[in-house]
């Protein structure tokens, strides 16, 4: 029962955390608030129920708690969107940042506090019903904790790697609710049997000194709770560099930690529970400090270890799991043994069993909440990931000192002092750059092996490394002069390049599309700053009077000087307003309407990027557009014919019936990214106006466009490849991408969005060929016969180039 209870709890955590992203944001503060609320609710529930469970029927209480969780499982997915909209109205753009964080915390608390308190209450209720006496308490605690924890590990892995990518969030949550109802029914059946037994409650089987000194295990539970959640944040950041998808990495880090906790609690039950808990605690604390030091030393070598595991283990699923267990399993195992040891020692001297368990669980949870908040919002920001480890190790050393000098005899104080001195010396010498080494090792492959590091930085949102590749030609416009340099790429925490010179031409064309196609582009919203090139292009064109830039990674602002432009000039334009926030959450809070919205985020294939391709987000964009406005999103050419690309075409057409596909550049070596443009109202453009605006371009602007293969107004109009059409029913179910089931990037080799009917690959390729080969005709008005002929010839050449690349 407790195995299934733990499994369902972690399924809920992964699913509900994912459901909150669209309305409360994907920034680290928003995610931190969600995790802190979840963990805090568990601790509060354990404390509240633990104080009373000695006077209640444990199994009936457990059954009622599971029924309550089931109710929230059915209801909560349907409350996220309306409550998120309400809290967004309370914090419009311009509200003080502390107020925004406070309201987000309140919003998450309103949604999650109820079910999390009930989940936390199940721990003391179950243990009180499962354990018959204090003499069995240590072993029963270890057994219950092990079963619950291995279930939680399975739930984290199951939800993060299969359920969330393959099914809708509401469906997964509802199915989990059915499991809670089944657990409630079983527990209620047990409640009839428990009245037939007499419960044995000795006052204590622990030494009197242990009963008096309950502050020691409570302080150790507080410390281990703090470091365990802090380690989880840092382990996730380390795994993200190697594995890429952050949802997958979070699930693996959490799963590895929970499996280690299970192994530790099992070890405690099998070998340690029968002995005295007093002198066990300092040895476990010493082991925890040693295991933590060694596990994080391994972080710098995770890329090499992962490549070796991929070569040795045939299945894709095995290598990531093995990597997580090797790196983080030993530390989690010691934590797993420490928890029941501390809880048992506290319960022996803290009054009733249920009360002692509840208070101990609450202390551990308070530490966990503090660890999430202080490490996630303060330490990583101020000290970086590597710098955040030193205070955590020092905290463990302090815990070792508390455990040693409060429980060991006087004659053992000298060895304790020596152990502490060695620990502090090791901590002081611990390297600070292991996370940067981890990221650099992950991205230095192939052509980037000889890349020179120009920039490395870290903030609350991401870690970034910028490389220059010697001998790789990059041409860019500096005024009317074409200059040459080396290619430069910036990589963020998901191991993917998020900007740089490789998309320079595409950024340039995107900026001109936004400024030249719309009749009067006065107000423009740019979601995603990247290297700053697109913003620079928008500033150079007459027309925009107000440009809002929303970027979740402020590190990009500091890095953009290395992409052959001046960020001070670009960001210092009086027309530009900069916001550091999640772009979708910003749009939800904004009261302004726009003429053009440009979404330049990671793409539909990236973790988090899929939230900018759903029906709900596109409808939000439409609501913020003025009549005649347009929204610009992008997609790789290859993705256009994949299942998620087909679904997005349907989604875009449902919200913006007037939509079109534009080539990102007319240059043959840089055309694989497409712009998909949705228009609010008619999509018709005026070629006479385009010709007039083209004539007003400066020599520098024309030089820049010429690099992108656009030498005239007809070349520019010919970038219009196709008018969007609904894909045929033969390409799969006629559904659209939603927040409830977005187009998540595949985690295993099996793509959940590639449940294709027979012949899908051939049918989708034929569909894209027909779409791009259709003669969309010239822009509707103002073009001469000669311009129409030139436009058709250029478009035909571009379409042939794109179709040839599909082979």
Report the sheet-strand fraction. 5-15%
Helix share of residues?
55-70%
Category by helix and strand content:
alpha/beta
Secondary structure: number of strands:
12
Rg, Å, rounded: 29 Å
In the sheet with the most strands, the strands line up as 7-6-5-8-9-11-10-12
Number of helices: 28
Query: How far is it from the N-terminal to the C-terminal residue, by CA?
Result: 54 Å
Low-confidence stretches: 196-212
Q: Report the sheet with the most strands, covering strand number, pairing sense and barrel closure.
A: 8 strands, mixed
Query: Oligomerization state of this entry?
Result: single chain
Mean pLDDT: 85
Note the overall shape: elongated
Describe this structure in words.
- The protein is α/β, with parallel strands linked by helices.
- The protein is built from 28 helices and 12 strands.
- It has helices spanning 2-24, 28-52, 58-75, 80-90, 97-130, 137-166, 169-194, 208-212, 215-243, 246-272, 280-297, 302-312, 318-349, 353-407, 413-428, 434-443, 504-517, 533-540, 555-559, 567-571, 583-589, 615-624, 643-655, 687-695, 699-707, 713-717, 760-773, 785-805; strands spanning 452-458, 463-478, 481-491, 497-500, 523-527, 546-551, 576-580, 594-599, 625-636, 658-663, 673-679, 720-723.
- The strands form 2 sheets. It has an 8-stranded mixed β-sheet with strand order 7-6-5-8-9-11-10-12, sandwiched between helices.
- A hairpin with a 5-residue loop joins β3 and β4.
- α1 (2-24) packs across α4 (80-90), α3 packs antiparallel against α5 (97-130) and α12 packs across α13.
- The two termini are 54 Å apart.
- The model is unreliable at 196-212 (pLDDT under 50).
């Amino acid at each position: 029962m407790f195995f299934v209870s733990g499994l369902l709890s972690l399924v809920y955590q992964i699913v509900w955390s994912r459901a909150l992203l669209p309305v409360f944001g994907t920034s680290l503060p928003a995610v931190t608030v969600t995790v802190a609320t979840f963990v805090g609710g568990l601790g509060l529930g354990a404390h509240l129920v633990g104080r009373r469970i000695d006077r209640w029927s444990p199994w009936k209480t457990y059954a009622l708690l599971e029924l309550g969780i089931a109710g929230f499982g059915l209801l909560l997915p349907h409350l996220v969107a309306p409550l998120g909209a309400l809290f967004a109205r309370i914090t419009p753009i311009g509200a003080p940042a502390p107020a925004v964080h406070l309201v987000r915390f309140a919003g998450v608390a309103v949604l999650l506090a109820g079910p999390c308190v009930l989940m936390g209450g199940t721990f003391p209720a179950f243990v009180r019903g499962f354990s018959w006496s204090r003499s069995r308490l240590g072993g029963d605690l270890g057994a219950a904790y092990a079963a619950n924890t291995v279930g939680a590990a399975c739930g984290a892995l199951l939800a993060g790697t299969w359920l969330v990518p393959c099914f809708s969030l509401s469906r997964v949550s509802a199915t989990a609710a059915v499991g809670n109802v089944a657990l409630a029914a079983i527990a209620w059946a047990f409640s009839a049997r428990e009245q037939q037994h007499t419960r044995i409650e000795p006052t204590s089987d622990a030494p009197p000194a242990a009963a008096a000194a309950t502050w020691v295990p409570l302080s150790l539970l507080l410390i281990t709770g703090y470091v365990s959640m802090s380690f989880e944040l840092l382990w996730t950041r380390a795994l993200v560099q190697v594995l890429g998808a952050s949802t997958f990495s979070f699930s693996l880090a959490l799963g590895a930690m929970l499996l280690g906790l299970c192994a530790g609690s099992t070890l405690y039950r099998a070998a340690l529970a029968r002995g005295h808990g007093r002198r066990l605690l300092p040895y476990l604390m010493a082991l925890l400090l040693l295991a933590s030091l060694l596990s994080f030393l391994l972080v710098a070598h995770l890329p090499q270890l992962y490549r070796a595991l991929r070569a040795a283990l045939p299945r894709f699923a095995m290598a990531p799991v093995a990597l997580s267990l090797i790196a983080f399993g030993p530390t989690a195992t010691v934590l797993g043994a420490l928890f029941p040891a501390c809880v048992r020692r506290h319960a022996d001297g803290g009054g009733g069993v249920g009360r002692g368990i509840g208070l101990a669980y609450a202390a551990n949870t308070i530490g966990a909440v503090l660890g999430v908040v202080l490490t996630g919002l303060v330490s990583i920001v101020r000290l970086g990931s590597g710098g955040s480890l030193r205070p955590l190790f020092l905290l463990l050393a302090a815990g070792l000192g508390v455990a040693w000098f409060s429980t060991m005899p006087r004659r053992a104080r000298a060895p304790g002092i020596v152990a502490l001195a060695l620990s502090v010396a090791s901590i002081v010498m611990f390297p600070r750059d292991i996370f940067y080494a981890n990221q650099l090792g992950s991205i230095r492959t192939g052509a980037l092996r000889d890349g020179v590091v120009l920039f490395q930085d870290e903030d609350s949102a991401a870690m970034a490394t910028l490389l220059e590749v010697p001998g790789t030609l990059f041409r860019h416009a500096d005024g009317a002069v074409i200059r040459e340099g080396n290619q430069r790429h910036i990589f963020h925490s998901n191991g993917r390049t998020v900007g740089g010179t490789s998309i320079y031409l595409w950024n340039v064309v995107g900026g001109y599309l936004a400024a030249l196609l719309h009749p009067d582009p006065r107000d423009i919203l740019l979601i995603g700053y990247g290297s700053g090139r697109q913003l620079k292009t928008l500033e150079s064109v007459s027309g925009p009077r107000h440009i809002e830039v929303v970027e979740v990674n402020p590190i990009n602002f500091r890095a953009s000087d290395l992409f052959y432009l001046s960020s001070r000039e670009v960001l210092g334009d009086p027309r530009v307003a900069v916001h550091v926030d999640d772009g979708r959450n910003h749009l939800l809070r904004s009261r302004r309407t726009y003429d053009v919205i440009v979404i330049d985020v990671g793409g539909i294939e990236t973790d988090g990027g899929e939230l900018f391709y759903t029906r709900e987000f596109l409808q939000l964009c439409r609501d913020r557009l003025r009549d005649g406005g347009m929204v610009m999103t992008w997609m790789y050419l290859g993705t256009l014919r994949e299942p998620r690309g087909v679904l997005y075409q349907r989604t875009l057409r449902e919200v913006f019936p007037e939509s079109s596909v534009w080539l990102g550049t007319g240059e043959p070596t840089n055309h694989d990214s497409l712009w998909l443009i949705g228009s609010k109202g008619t999509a018709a453009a005026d070629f006479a106006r385009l010709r007039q605006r083209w004539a007003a371009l400066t020599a520098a602007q024309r030089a820049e466009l010429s690099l992108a293969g656009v030498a005239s107004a007809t070349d520019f109009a010919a970038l219009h490849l196709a008018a969007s059409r609904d894909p045929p029913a033969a390409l799969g179910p006629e559904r659209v991408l939603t927040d409830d089931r977005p187009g998540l990037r595949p985690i295993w080799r099996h793509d959940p969005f590639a449940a294709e009917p027979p012949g899908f690959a051939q049918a989708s390729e034929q569909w894209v060929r027909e779409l791009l080969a259709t003669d969309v005709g010239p822009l509707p008005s103002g073009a001469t016969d000669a311009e129409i002929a030139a436009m058709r010839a250029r478009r035909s050449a571009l379409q042939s180039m794109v179709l040839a690349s599909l082979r």
